[in-house]
Design brief:
The protein has five helices and no strands. The chain is mainly alpha-helical and 130 residues long. InterPro entries: Kinase-like_dom_sf, Ser-Thr/Tyr_kinase_cat_dom.
Amino acid sequence: RYCVSGRLTTSSDVFSFGVVLLEIVTGEPPILPTHVHIVQRVKEKVIMGNIETIVDPRLHRQYDFSSIWKVVDMALLCTRESSSERPTMSMVVSHLKDALELEEARASASTISQVGSNADLSISWVASGR
């Protein structure tokens, strides 16, 4: 947005932060050789409704889908054309904390599940006399 207006504002900072969020989620640069900006690319994929086409494949689906949707949604709010429609950074932080809580709950549940699976394997190993 600075390139368009030539002015740095709180609102342009929010826009830039939204772009950074999209870069983190997608693992892509803001502009590709096709000259399509990351905001437009993500918006097109959101319309399809499939989060897996947006998220960096290097994450191997190891994330909470609701958490990722919250981050993408917030990033798109940050990058709205009209600066008056963008959230404040305190709103962004609040939403990102919510997304983090979802991700931490998923990670915790995954760890508990792995520990339970390992315990079951150990018990069956001992029970079979190995």
